[in-house]
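Something for you to look into today, if you have time. What I am after is a single protein written out in full by you. I want to see for myself how the chain folds. Could you add the entry underneath, on a fresh line?
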Amino acid sequence: MAVMRIAITGSAGLIGTALLRSLRGDGATRPPGAGKQHDIVRLVRHAPRASDEVRWDPQRQTVDAAGLAGCDAVVHLAGAGVGDHRWTDAYKREIRDSRVLGTAALAEALASLDTPPRVFVCSSAVGYYGDTGDRRTDESAPPGDDFLARVCADWEDAAAPAVEAGIRTVFPRTGLVVGRQGGAWGRLFPLFKLGLGGRLGTGRQYWSYISLHDHVAALRHLIDTEELSGPVNLTAPEPVTNREVTAAMGRVLHRPTPFAVPAPALRLALGEFADNVLASQRIIPRRLLDSGFTFTHTTPDSAIRAALED
């Protein structure tokens, strides 16, 4: 990757923190005379406190567009955590608005620039497809019809101003990121370390996962690969069932996995969100593989071990 000016939303989250670390690490590995490290701009909701911060307010749909001038790439990762709270009507509205309103504001700001960025990497999720059962599903599949599927479709549609301005816009449809410091998988590690982990429901539902390392590498690949635009699935090449994930966590952490959480108990604990936990998504990263991307972690065991090393 050439030295670039790159703006990032959600830079304090699990993926944003790892992406920042990766981009800033480039400067330490450049040979003498190869130029400085990347110029990173972090979009923040508070008044800027550092020279690399630019203010935005996704709820009010305001962006300090001047602070984005000269950016080569913008990576949009911000959004309320899907599993952070019970899905009340108010929180479902927050999940949607944090994605759709923020994306629309950012896309409009980028389109207004005299010199827009070359690429806008705008997060989405495999939730776009809904429950796919055991069907192998790639980017050509239509959207599903549940809450998260509709959110993802609206989320991607909100980037239209950037697309219409001629900015190469890519939608990484992310699977379950295997990370220890956050996200849905981060909540599994303490339970399994205590020997309290187990399958969810029947365990036969497919989980489309990706290691944090591969996710960051894939985001950088999307920035660099000029022929990629539109949806790109960010999942490991072969999804596995929840039962297989449970077994892998037990093997890697050397803990028994005797428990199973029946579907009714999950619905009691999680409400509507339980249906998404129990849904099966067998998502294949067809476009990512076709573009020449090489995965480092192609099994859940490898992804889990990598998370423990972060």
